[in-house]
Amino acid sequence: MTLSRLLSNRWAQRLLLVTGGALLAVLVAELALAALGMSFPNFYQPDLYCGTALRPGAEGWYTHEGKSYVRINQDGLHDRDHTRTKPPHTLRIAILGDSYAEAFQVPMGMSFWAVLERELARNPVLKGERAEVINFGVSGYGTALELLTLRHRVWKYSPDIVLLSFLTGNDISDNSYALNHEDRTPYFVHRNGSLLLDDSYLEWFRSRQGPLARAYYSLLNHSRILRIFKEARYALDRRARGAHQEAVAARAGFSGEAGMSDMIYVEPRDPLWKEAWQITSIRIVESVPPVNGTGSQCSIWRLSCRRTRTSIRSSCTDSETLSASGTGTPRVTRSPVARSRNGSRAF
């Protein structure tokens, strides 16, 4: 059929008009959203090891809690770029954590790890060495995902010290599918007397690797309309997960969101919470010094869920209990304060 005959066909004309009108409407909507400053940038992508991770090169305004312009570096970290090879005379510190360490809510220079690097630069204890702090924090990560990050990403940078920022508010429940109810995340589970990695999340990950999925994510990164629909869907998902967590908490005698209250410090009475504590304590024990035989030191910092992201206590005692001291309660204690190579306390 020639073009002239196609254009003379009434149904073809209607189809072209509808298609053109739809494309024009989408273009106008995209321009309107850009003019209004509505963007909802896509900062995350599917990840083989942790389910989701930060997307290299993503940038845009973050407005959920506070407002700041966020840039993700070339290696998928909310940080400036760092070389894989550690520079000479450098004390390299790796930060593991969740949204408190990710710190989208404040300008990068106000994050606790940026403040730490500046404070260490003025510390005479280093004696000619330069402190370099690298942030591996990702929102939603518990200690299980932080351990996987340590294994698959952190060691490439050869850190001297690894700091695990432990959020008492939800790092326990994040390690349990029954409490967290997130399908896109790997979990450690007890099977046949052993603690194994449950790779059920890989089904979701593989569904995001085909050509159609790649085309969708490419379009998502350039379309404000798609990102708004995605944001709305995630909001519904978060509401459903929150309702599930509250129901689990209520059955265990807790009030409010599961894991986000001071009740985290009492003796766990529910089997799900007991298992979550056991998994968390075993995962953290694997991260204390010397870490994985590398000679790097590990220190665990407690972050209270009632504090801001920049108000972290860095003057710590040698050991601090993160759980209540009840009979049979699993305990997680902070490792000895990390020391510099000459034996003096670095912080």
In short:
With 347 residues, the protein is an alpha/beta fold. Helix content is 35%, strand content 15%. Strands 6-5-7-10 form a four-stranded parallel sheet, with helices on both faces. The protein has a two-stranded antiparallel sheet with strand order 1-2.
Would you kindly provide a written description of the structure presented here, covering whatever features stand out?
By secondary structure, the chain is an alpha/beta fold. Among the domains are: 29 residues; 213 residues, no CATH class. Helix content is 35%, strand content 15%. The strands form 4 sheets. A 4-stranded parallel beta sheet has the order 6-5-7-10, sandwiched between helices. A two-stranded antiparallel ribbon has the order 1-2. Strands 3-4 form a two-stranded antiparallel sheet. The longest helix has 28 residues.
Topology:
Layout: H1 3-8, H2 10-36, E1 44-47, E2 51-54, E3 59-62, E4 68-71, E5 90-96, H3 99-102, H4 112-121, E6 130-135, H5 143-152, E7 161-167, H6 177-180, E8 187-191, E9 194-198, H7 201-206, H8 211-220, H9 224-251, H10 271-285, E10 297-303
Parallel strand pairs: 5-6, 5-7, 7-10
Antiparallel strand pairs: 1-2, 3-4, 8-9
